[in-house]
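Can't paste images in this forum, so I'm doing it all in text. The chain is below; anyone willing to post the predicted structure tokens underneath?
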Amino acid sequence: MGIGAPVRRVEDRRFLEGKGQYLADLDIPGTVDLAFLRSPVAHARLKGVEIPEQYRGQVFLARDIDFVKPIVAVGKAPGFKYSEYPPLARDKLRFVGEMVAMCIARGRAAAEDIAQACVLDFEELPAVWDMEVALRDGAPLVHDDWTDNRFVTTEIKAGDLEAVKAAAAVRVEKSLRMGRHVGVSMETRGVLAHYDNRLGELVVWSSTQFPHVIRTVLAQSLGISESALRVVAPDVGGGFGPKNNFQPEELAVAALAMKIGRPVRWIEDRREHFIASPHAREHRYKLVAYADKAGRILGIEAEVMVDAGAYSVWPWTAAMEAGMAAGIMTGPYDIPVYHGRAITVCTNKAPLGPYRGVGRTGACFAIETLIDAVARAVGRDPQEVRIANMVQPSAMPYRSVTGKLYDSGDYPECARRAIAAIEPEKVRARQQRGEPDGRLIGFGVASYTEQSAHGTAEWVARGLPVVFGYEPALARFTPDGKLILFVGIQNHGQGLETTLAQVAHQELGLPVSDVIVRHGDSSTSPYGMGTFASRSMTMAGGAVSRACATLAEKMKRIGAHLLQAPPGEVRLADGKVWFGEQSVGFAEIAEAAYLHPERLPTGEEPALEANAVYEPGRSTGAFSYATHACTVAVDPGTGVVEVLDYVVCHDCGTIVNPMIVEAQVVGGVAQGLGTALYEEIPYDENGQPLASTFLDYRIPGPTEVPDVRVLHMETPSPHTRFGIKGMGEGGAIAPPAAVVNAINDALRPLGAEINVTPVTPERVLEAIAAAGAAR
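Text version of the structure:
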């Protein structure tokens, strides 16, 4: 039941039996429901709001909560344009869906009726609806006090690019685009705030990924002490990143509850989620690769441009996505020279936030399609060129040209295993035979690295307002011998209540069923940083291990005393302390520690609990990696793409629970296929989002996601407890690159090429038509 065992998830029973408690399930007497009046236009001067007389006292504007501070992700810093994200718009509307007023009633429908009855008075302005539009000379300014619409531009220059240009036998250029989309968690966002008169504290329930951090920033924004604020995350129905920001809705709802002295609840509807929740992706790339005649890449030039929307989200800032994409661009490859430029653009769209894969999905799409292009240019098989350019295992630990320190792994072997599982010889034979239905078969591969267990120095270098470099845990036995783990991370589908219990079993030898994991409540759990960035198992797992190891020593001392045995000769197993064939159960030890201290060894303190804080051995963290390989069928008549086979070979160091790891990989692949083939929110020239329901916004379902085959490698990290590496985001990183490479392989006989995601049928047909016209 310890590390490495495929233990079934203990938290699933309550969900399968319908006993989970999500934010919408909370029932606090006297609660009023809130609906936001949101901007119907992308860009306008706000002149006022006309409130019908019968609804006065039920509609609240920015001036009604003027005691709160706006959200500021980055202070006034050189090179980064300052902006304030108000909880409610005051003088200007900057994207469709921006909040203008709060309308309350007994019931969401009634609150929506009030919002519908209010009338906005505004002067519409030209919309900055696209990055190219935003960067034109004389473009309208999203923020009037800015000189242009760039949040920030950063550059990386490593190595002598001019020397590489002179030496290269091959020069390959590519331009790529990745579409904008949203997180689409099963449970949307939501907030419920009320004042607890008995404890004298404001209680904010939020469907969030990091309740402790939200408490800190929310207290600062409300101007109250953290000791007077409690933030609780109940069961959270998926996060994926959009719930890992300080939401303006959290601030607005909490402020209103303070003002009116009543419980206030807001549950996001799906249209709000599409138009106003933090968006994801929307990258554009201009790439140049310089290689020798065998396809060995000598250097790369890259420009990454990201549409970050109208505001900078807290705490990640608008610069996160472009900066990460540029910084991890070289992926698992040994590329000696790299010049990269990251441009973060401000437009009249919903702000961009983290989404599973954060920057790496786009970077992988860029480098992996570029690798295939280089291979075609030198007349070699892309997989041969891919493996030839990879960092070799003998080079580990390896520092990349962008300064990333890869700790361990065998990238070429991982690629070879994934490719072999697809059986490329059979795929090529099938291509030669042709399909009876006329579809074209293609084979594609993509590899990536995934940084996890980021330490203090790594976060400091990113310049964020919070440094997420550690994680705490409190392990406490009850007097009847059960163990409760209090942790600062937040479980929302990762199986952490199970895997943390497995770590406790590894250290203490008690059954997983005797371990309870408590999280999500800022008043009961130690202050922690939450769940994101593939960090929870490495960081919280490390903290739980340390706390339980401390408890294990105390259990041995007490158990040895009760057994009248030397402390150094006892062991822990099966919920007992053993000396030879004699044993004493944890319940008896806990009873002595809590209820009968006279039974303890001389000098041993009563109680059985231990605190621990964990930081990785190296701040640069632990790098997981994987190769994805797939085959697709493309219908040249309809443009429809079907994924026929999909293989992932991955290495996340020591695997705690292979069943959970495999499920995480498959879930990530499903989301990655959404990015590759289906999900997109386009905007028209007026800044109106053209996908605001599931009629317009497609997501992959059971018929679109193939049976993903997952192969495991284990190269432990030397820098983390047990050698664990994070892997929660990895499945979503490579699918767009692997699928596009496969589609382009299928379209090669037609001379067509795809360089944009999602690869919709219309785009496939456009590429085929363009190739035909060129011929």
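The chain has 19 helices and 29 strands. The mean pLDDT is 97.
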